[in-house]
Each structure stands twice: as structure tokens, then as C-alpha cells.
Amino acid sequence: MGHFSEEKQGVLYTAASYLLWGVLPLYWKLLEARPALEILAHRIIWSFAFMIILLAATGQLGAWRREIRAMRRQPALAWGIAAAAVLISANWFIYIWAVNHRHIVEASLGYYINPLISVALGMIVLRERLNIGQWLSFLLAAAGVAVMAVEYGSFPWISLALALSFGFYGLVKKLASVDSSIGLALETMAVMPLSAIYVLWLYHETPSLVHAAWWQWALLLGSGPATAVPLLYFAKGVKRVSMTMLGFLQYISPTISLLLGVFLFGEPFTRAHLYAFSCIWTALIVFSVVQIKQAPGQKKWKRSSFKA
Length: 308
What we know:
The protein is mainly alpha-helical. It has one domain. 80% of the residues lie in helices and 0% in strands. It is built from 12 helices and no strands. The chain has helices at residues 2-29, 36-57, 61-73, 75-100, 104-125, 132-152, 157-175, 180-205, 214-238, 243-249, 252-264, 271-294. α1 (2-29) packs antiparallel against α9 and α4 (75-100) packs antiparallel against α7.
């Protein structure tokens, strides 16, 4: 019964994280009058501030300082953190820009593709072997991207940029394993000085941006908790659920985003989108079935990752 309770808690935590990530476009839409790069800079600054407060409250500041010292002794770890910081910053920027320029549908496609990109990176970089089902999933996903490019008349760069940046981010996190909370604090710390300098320069060059409504400033400051809270729920949940369950739950977020883009914000869902998404959805069904057959009694997944 205790095990069932733990599994149930894990499902609730993980589902909550994906639900929050799914509705995050609503948050960024409220700030669409602001430049995407400004929103990103504030997201980095306030995420760092929030994580430092959180680490202090949970007694993890000592562990955070130890990781900083380890980075000084191990250049490879420092480079790994820096690479992760650049990749997640790029992912956040592309996502914010896409949401506020009416590309939520394409952004959701990127996060549908992401698990398959991760499989491909595992094969190429980590020399992991793919079975026939995984190869079929990957080829179907590639066909969906090709259909999108041909039918829609433009290459789905937003989708692929999101999928690739997050896929490589996950790979870097796997190679340089750091606790999720401490990792986010280190990554935002790495790019925080540049973000602060940019914000100061931006407000000097464009003073009108400073005279924003109070609620816009509240949202900019709140971008830190909005980033960290889903991550913390995810970190709690991912330790308690199986990889198979995680595989199903991870599609909650892009599905919500897709529905918001089409039905709330009126973005077009063309024939090209239908063909492309059909290929991707079929690929994900095949992928999920393969995962279930491969590991019917798989243990809990110990590694976590971050999302936009």
C-alpha cells in the first residue's frame, strides 16, 4: 500500500508539472508587449534569485558552494554547466518568442518531437542501440518534419530548434550529472551577469520600457517562480514514477499548448499541420508501445531534466 501511495504521489507531482508547463503560454502571452529577450533576461535573473532563496530555505547552500568549488577543480564540469546554461537559455528564448509571435502550434510540435530527438542523440553520441520499433518511430518523426517543410512551404525551424536545444540540454545534463535544484541555480548563475547587463543597457537605451504597468513588473519578477515551481514538482515526481508512466505523462504539456494555440489564440491548423502531427503522433504511439514492451517492470527513473 505504501508503494502504491508513493507511485500515486509521483503521478500527481509529475502530472502537475506538465500541466503547469502546458499552460505556461498563457503566462508569456500576458507579456507579449515586452521584447522576448527582455523577458528571457528577467526569467534568468529571477530564477537565479528564487533558487538561491530556495536552496537557503532547504539547507542546500553548502552543497551549491561545493559544486562551485568542484567546477573550479574540474574544467569539464564547468564547461558542462556553461553548455547547459546556453542551451536552456536558447530554449527558453525560442519558446517565449514563439508564443508571443503566434507560433504556439509549432512550439508544441517541437516538444512532441523532443523524446525522439533524445533517442537519436543517445544513438549517435552514447552509442545506444535502437531496435526496429525505435527506428520506425524516428523515421516517422522525420517524415512528419519533411511533410511540414514541403506542404507548409517553410522549414519548421521553431519546432526543431526547441527539440534540438532541449535534446542536447538533456544530453549535457546526463553527461554532467548535478542535482536538479543545484543545477538550475548554477546554470542561471552562469548567464545571470550577462542578463543583468543586458537589462540595464536595454532600459538605458529604451527608457519607456521602465514605465510599465505594475502587473507587468509583477509578472517579470514572477517568471522566476513560474520557471522553478514546475521543475520542483517534476523533480519530486520523477523519482517516484516508472519510465513508462513518465513517457505517457510528458505529452500532457505539448497537447495543452497545442489546444491553447488552436482554440484559444486562433492559430491556423492547416492540412500540413495535420499531416505532420499525424506522423509524429503515430511515431509516439509506436515509441510508447516499444517502451512498455522493453521495460514492463522498470524501476524508477533517477535522472531529471528541465523544460521550458
